[in-house]
Design goal:
The N and C termini lie far apart (96 Å). By secondary structure, this protein is mainly α. Helix 1 packs across helix 3. It has 2 domains: 137 residues, Serine Threonine Protein Phosphatase 5, Tetratricopeptide repeat (Alpha Horseshoe), CATH 1.25.40; 44 residues.
């Protein structure tokens, strides 16, 4: 890697970091491509960036249990440098899932799910990532979590009960024996129902 390649990658990384707000998912591929073009990155620069992403991921994996802030920054940079690598997305998902289990902050859960879903986009069969998704309360399958299903059932029961009340007491009120007798007498007297 020559000096100008390093400079272009560093410029790219600086601009890509600016495009990524804290507690938000990373910029999309189109945004990252635009930044790479703006700083003049070449195909060789992209290969160098991918190697750097691999190095950052290895270092982050070693730091994850000791210094998760530094590990997070390395993983974020790895995602920006090579957004097609599974491992940085998986490790970020793991990091945010752990933070969510420790602090119960909803943004940690959302980010954990986001990074896990990106990892499954890269490798749908990656079981550790699927486990994170299930642990965070969302499943990659088409089934509903039990809490959503229970809410839907509750709403349907309430609607059914409301419809029953409307039908029996408003739309078709209960007919008493006295009312039935009045109708019978009327029909005997007049021979046809009233119009």
């Amino acid at each position: 890697m020559n000096a100008s390649s390093n400079e272009r990658i560093d410029n790219y990384l600086k601009r890509a970091r600016q495009a990524w707000d804290d507690d938000q998912p990373p910029p999309d591929g189109q945004t990252l491509r635009g930044i790479a073009e703006d700083v003049g990155m070449t195909h060789e620069d992209s290969e160098d960036a991918d190697r750097r992403a691999g190095e950052f991921t290895v270092r982050a994996g070693e730091l994850l249990e000791k210094d998760d802030q530094q590990a997070e920054q390395l993983l974020r940079d790895a995602v920006l440098l090579s957004p097609v690598r599974l491992q940085p997305f998986y490790l970020l998902a793991r990091l945010y899932a752990r933070r969510y289990s420790e602090h119960s902050r909803p943004e940690h859960r959302i980010l954990g799910l986001h990074f896990a879903e990106r990892a499954t986009d890269i490798d749908p069969e990656h079981e550790p990532t699927r486990t994170i998704i299930e642990d965070l309360g969302d499943t990659p399958s088409d089934s509903l979590p039990w809490s959503k299903a229970a809410l839907i059932v509750l709403v349907l029961v309430l609607i059914s009960g409301t419809m029953h009340v409307c039908n029996n007491h408003i739309l078709a009120p209960e007919v008493t024996d006295e009312q039935t007798e009045e109708v019978r007498e009327y029909l005997e007297e007049h021979g046809e129902p009233p119009r």
